[in-house]
C-alpha cells in the first residue's frame, strides 16, 4: 500500500507535475519504499502509454506531392495583383455583360409589328387637285404659289400630285389607306388591283418636267409624277 | 521530418529576393509541422494536408509582416491549430471520429490492432474533450517531441505554465483509460 502522504505525489511525479525539489524529495522516498516505488513505476508506464498514444495520433508526414501542390498555389498567389480600379472596371464590365444577357434572355420583348410602317390617321394621304381628280387636264392647271410665299404643307396632310393617268390608281390607294389601310398586305393588294406600281412623292421633291414642254421652275413646288 | 524537402522544384515568385530565400528555407520543413498539428486535431491525413496547405499559404501572404522571423514556427503552429479547430467545428466530431477511427494505426496482429484502436479512440476522445490550452501543449509535446522549454517558446508561455498544463492534460488522458493511482495492487 502506498504511503498516504505520497499518493498524490506519485501521480504528479510520474506525469511530470512536480518541481525539481519535489521530485527529488519523491525519489528519496521511493528509494526506501517498495510499494510506492512499484506504484510510481506503474504510473510512469501509464504516462508513457498516454504520450505514445498521442504521438501515434499525430504521426506522419504530408504526401509526396504536398510541396509541389503548395508551390503551385504559392505561385498563383504571387501573380501581381491588378490595381483596384482595374479590378472594379473588370467587375463592372462583367456585371454589365451579365445584365445584358439576362435582359436579352428574360425581359419580354414586344413582338415585331406585322407591318414595318404605320400610317396615322392625320397623315393619311390626301389627293389634292384643283379639279376633280377624274379630270386629267385640271392637274396641270393648278395655281402656282409665288416663290416667296410660305409653303402650305403641314404635318397633318400629305399632299400628293399625280399624273392624270394615275389618278385612279392613287384614288384607289387613298381609299384603301383611309378605310383600313395600315396593313402592308392591303397596300400590296391595292397595288395589284390597280395593276401599276405606285410612286408617291411629297411637295418637297424637285418637280419633274411636265409633259407638253411645260417645264417647272426651280421655285415651283408643284410637280408631276 | 524533412520528407518533403526533396520535392522542391523551381523557386517561388516573390517580390523580395531575401524574403523568398527565407521562405524557401521554411518551406523545406515547416509544412510537416503544420501538417502534424492539424493531424492531431483532425486525425485525418487528407484534411490535415488541406489545413497545412492553407496555413502555409497564409504564412506566405503575411510573411513580410512578420518582424521576428524566429517566431515563424510558432506563428505557423497557431495558424494550423486555429484552422484545424475551425474545420473540426464545421464537421461534427462524432462523424469525424467514426470516419477516421484506426486510419493511422500500423498493421500488426488482429488483437494488437483492435487493442491499439480502442486505446487510440479512448485517448483521442479524451484529447478532444480537453480544453484548448491543455490540448495544444499536449499535441506539441507529441508532434515534434518538444520539451517543455520548446513548447513554452512556441506558445510564448512560461515554462512552469507549460509544465503544469502538460501534467493536467496527461492526468486527464490517463483517467480516460480508467487508470488512477488507486488502481495499483497496493492502492
Supply database-style keywords:
heterodimer; A: 225 residues; mainly alpha; Arc Repressor Mutant, subunit A; two-stranded parallel ribbon; 2 strands; 3% strand; rod-shaped; B: 187 residues; Rna Polymerase Sigma Factor, Chain: A; 2 domains; 9 helices; 68% helix; globular; disordered N terminus; disordered C terminus
Would you give an account of this structure?
The complex is a heterodimer of chains A (225) and B (187). With 225 residues, chain A is mainly alpha-helical. Among the domains of chain A are: 4-58, Orthogonal Bundle (Arc Repressor Mutant, subunit A); 121-213, no CATH class. Chain A is 46% helix and 3% strand. Chain A has helices spanning 7-14, 20-30, 34-58, 66-78, 84-106, 167-179, 184-194; strands spanning 125-127, 158-160. The radius of gyration of chain A is 53 Å and the shape is rod-shaped. The termini of chain A are far apart. In chain A, 17% of the residues are buried. The model of chain A is unreliable at 111-139, 152-156 and 210-225 (pLDDT under 50). Helix content of chain B is 68%, strand content 0%. The relative contact order of chain B is 0.10. By secondary structure, chain B is mainly alpha-helical. The N and C termini of chain B lie far apart (42 Å). In chain B, α2 (30-42) packs across α3. Chain B contains nine helices and no strands. Mean pLDDT of chain B is 77; it is low at 1-11, 101-108 and 180-187. Chain B folds into two domains: 12-104, Rna Polymerase Sigma Factor, Chain: A (Orthogonal Bundle), CATH 1.10.1740; 108-180, Arc Repressor Mutant, subunit A. The radius of gyration of chain B is 19 Å and the shape is globular. Chains A and B meet through α1, α3 and α4 of A and α2, α3, α6, α7 and α9 of B.
Helix content of chain A: 40-55%
How far apart are the first and last residues' alpha carbons of chain A, in Å?
Answer: 135 Å
Structure summary, number of beta strands of chain B: 0
Strand sequence of the main sheet of chain A, in spatial order? Answer: 1-2
Helix content of chain B: 55-70%
Order of helices and strands of chain B: HHHHHHHHH
What is the fourth-level CATH superfamily of the largest domain in chain B? RNA polymerase sigma factor, region 2, helix turn helix motif
CATH architecture of the largest domain in chain B: Orthogonal Bundle
Order of helices and strands of chain A: HHHHHEEHH
Quantity of strands of chain A, as a count: 2
DSSP helical segment count of chain B = 9
Helix segment tally of chain A: 7
By secondary-structure content and strand pairing, the structural class of chain B works out as mainly alpha
Q: Give the overall silhouette of chain B.
A: globular
Mean pLDDT of chain B: 77
Q: How big a fraction of the residues of chain A is strand?
A: under 5%
Amino acid at each position: 500500500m502506498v504511503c498516504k502522504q505520497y499518493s498524490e505525489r506519485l501521480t504528479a511525479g510520474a506525469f511530470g507535475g512536480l518541481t525539481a525539489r519535489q521530485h527529488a524529495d519523491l525519489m528519496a522516498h521511493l528509494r526506501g519504499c517498495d510499494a510506492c516505488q512499484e506504484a510510481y513505476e506503474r504510473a510512469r508506464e501509464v504516462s508513457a502509454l498516454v504520450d505514445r498514444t498521442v504521438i501515434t495520433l499525430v504521426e506522419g508526414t504530408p504526401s509526396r506531392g504536398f510541396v509541389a501542390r503548395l508551390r503551385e498555389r504559392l505561385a498563383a498567389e504571387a501573380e501581381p495583383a491588378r490595381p483596384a480600379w482595374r479590378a472594379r472596371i473588370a467587375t463592372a464590365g462583367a456585371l454589365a455583360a451579365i445584365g445584358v444577357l439576362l435582359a436579352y434572355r428574360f425581359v419580354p420583348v414586344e413582338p415585331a409589328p406585322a407591318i414595318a410602317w404605320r400610317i396615322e390617321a392625320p397623315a393619311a394621304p390626301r389627293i389634292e387637285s384643283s379639279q376633280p381628280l377624274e379630270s386629267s387636264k385640271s392637274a396641270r392647271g393648278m395655281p402656282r404659289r409665288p416663290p416667296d410665299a410660305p409653303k402650305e404643307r403641314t404635318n397633318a396632310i400629305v399632299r400628293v400630285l399625280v399624273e392624270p393617268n394615275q389618278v385612279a390608281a392613287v384614288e384607289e390607294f387613298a381609299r384603301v389607306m383611309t378605310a383600313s389601310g395600315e396593313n402592308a398586305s392591303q397596300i400590296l393588294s391595292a397595288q395589284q388591283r390597280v395593276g401599276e406600281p405606285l410612286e408617291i412623292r411629297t411637295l418637297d421633291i424637285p418637280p419633274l418636267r411636265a409633259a407638253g414642254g411645260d417645264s417647272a421652275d426651280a421655285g415651283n413646288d408643284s410637280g408631276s409624277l | 521530418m524533412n520528407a518533403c524537402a526533396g520535392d522542391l522544384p523551381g523557386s517561388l515568385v516573390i517580390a523580395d529576393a531575401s524574403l523568398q530565400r527565407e521562405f524557401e528555407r521554411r518551406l523545406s520543413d515547416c509544412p510537416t509541422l503544420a501538417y502534424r498539428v492539424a493531424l492531431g486535431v483532425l486525425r485525418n491525413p487528407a484534411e490535415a494536408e488541406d489545413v497545412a496547405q492553407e496555413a502555409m499559404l497564409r504564412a506566405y501572404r503575411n510573411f513580410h509582416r512578420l518582424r521576428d522571423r524566429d517566431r515563424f514556427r510558432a506563428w505557423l503552429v497557431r495558424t494550423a491549430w486555429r484552422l484545424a479547430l475551425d474545420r473540426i467545428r464545421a464537421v461534427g466530431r462524432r462523424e469525424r471520429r467514426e470516419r477516421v477511427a484506426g486510419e493511422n494505426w500500423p498493421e500488426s496482429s488482429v488483437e494488437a490492432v483492435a487493442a491499439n484502436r480502442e486505446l487510440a479512440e479512448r485517448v483521442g476522445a479524451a484529447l478532444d474533450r480537453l480544453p484548448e490550452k491543455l490540448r495544444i501543449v499536449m499535441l506539441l509535446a507529441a508532434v515534434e517531441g518538444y520539451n517543455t522549454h520548446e513548447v513554452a517558446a512556441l506558445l510564448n508561455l512560461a515554462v512552469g505554465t507549460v509544465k503544469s498544463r502538460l501534467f493536467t492534460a496527461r492526468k486527464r488522458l490517463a483517467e480516460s483509460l480508467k487508470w488512477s493511482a488507486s488502481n495499483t495492487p497496493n492502492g
